[in-house]
Amino acid sequence: MATFQKRNNRVTATVRIKPHPPKSKTFETLRDAKFWAQELEVKLRNEKAQIFNHIIFEDALKQYRDEVSVNKKGYRQEICKINFILKDMNCKVPLVKVSKEMLIAWREDRLSKVMGATVRRQLIVLAGFFTWCIDVKLWLSESPLDEVKFPGDSNHRERVISEEEIKTMSEVLDIKVNRIFLFALETGMRQSEICELTWDRVFINKRYVRLTSTKNGRPRDVPLSNAAINILQQLEGGKAGSVFKYTAQYVSQIFGDTRTQAGLAGFTFHDTRHTAATRIALKIPVLDLCKMFGWSNPKRAMVYYNPTASEIAERL
Questions:
Q1: Boundaries of each Tyr recombinase domain copy (predicted)?
Q2: Cα gap 265→72, rounded to integer Å
């Protein structure tokens, strides 16, 4: 039941529906106050009866973004995907009206514009959202994605940065970004792992650095080559705080711009991880390589170890 009280030429509406606590809101006009109270009464009565027809897909997806996605390690990427879905899909419908047919139609439209791997990643985000709606919010009893086939993942990249490309990049890159580039080639660490490294996790005497925040969520220790140690010893700023000072976003931008200015193409900063794995695989056993790169499954080594047939032939 709603009550309305005038105060200072404004109207405060209060809705009381057990077992929910009273909810109040102040408006400029009685009309706005009554409209809000009526909508809230319907919502609270439906929730009490476990009826969720009033939950709008758009509102639920925004709530998931703001309450769940923001707490994930890859929150920036997931939030971008959700924001795109909110713009690209018809999200104004009630959540319970989201159907398999609706999602399949959206999938096919997306596949006509982008690669299957992109659509697959967007559907994975939606799958997590629908699971939350079922297991946490109790808004749904089953996921409309259950019978929707996801596009296959794209073939893994096999791009190794050549010695000539490394030499060219090192000659034109900003000196600090170049150190990050060369450190990645020596350690196989991801760009974010390098940029988030702090001096308290660097153990030069024991020849390793400790990563506490990684893609798979498990910490790992990364051994250091002589060249990697030499890079660390060249750095200024003492032994406190960030090691490399730059953010991953800044490094990515500078690296991409410099590569273009140098007339190079076809590789990204992440390809330093492929390059490092291909180099280091010739020096240490595969299980040591997996330990260094943080792979729990040795099959991952085959994704990142990318020698050419000619290079293999030279070793025969």
A1: 156-316
A2: 32
